[in-house]
Amino acid sequence: MADREQPVTLRTRKFIRNALLGRKQMVVDVLHPNRANVSKNDLRAKLAELYKTSKDSISVFGFRTQYGGGKSTGFALIYDSMEAMKKFEPHYRLVRIGVASKIEKASRQQRKQRKNRAKTVRGTAKTKGAAKDKKNKK
Asked: For site-directed labelling of 137, which of 46, 65, 78, 114 has its Cα 20 to 30 A away?
């Protein structure tokens, strides 16, 4: 793969130092000619090198490649500490970068079916299950 050796240029703009959330936030423009796109992991590594911080405290997201390719634009957050990152960063993004583990739960359809089954036994004695009352209605 010759794609990995292609040069990649990072430009940051709209840089804001957010002291309340303990982070720096910015828009990142990635110039990647002759290359489809750049992985978020590579971008985190390059930003860590650029801002002299650890790769683990950086979150990148929302990248869109411009029509015609060669340039992508997204958002980056560089946290001052891992505590601030774990406190303010959404859980799904922490899972994406491997800081947190995914909460395993039943599928949405199974949860809805369980809810609807529980509605049939509401107000009855919890024995084996709901004895459905089927009366011939005329």
From this structure: 114
